[in-house]
Design goal:
Blueprint lengths: L16 E2 L2 E2 H11 L7 E5 L12 E5 H21 L2
Antiparallel strand pairs: 1-2, 3-4
Length: about 80
């Protein structure tokens, strides 16, 4: 069973759209990369707030790196909540 803790995943918010495109992806392309995202790239919200589309809060990474990041974060949070440290 996979646990999702509210500390890490506050409330699931829907991403904002702009003419059919996710705003955070559009901002990353225009203000961070200055090119289109590649198929294996995603835009990660550093503070996990999908409403915060400030370029300083966005990080472009490969899809697999993003999966690995969340696995590590899940383990850390689970350990902290279970052990209290």
């Amino acid at each position: 069973m996979r646990y999702r803790f509210s500390v890490y995943y506050p409330q699931r918010q829907k991403y904002k759209h702009n003419k059919g495109k996710y705003v955070h992806r559009d901002i990353a392309e225009r203000k961070i990369l200055f090119r289109k995202l590649r198929k294996n790239e995603i835009v990660h919200h550093i503070d996990h707030d999908c409403r915060n589309n400030d370029p300083d809060n966005l990080c472009v990474m490969k899809y697999q790196d993003h999966i690995n990041l969340h696995k590590i974060m899940d383990r850390c949070i689970k350990r902290c909540l279970l052990t209290g440290s």
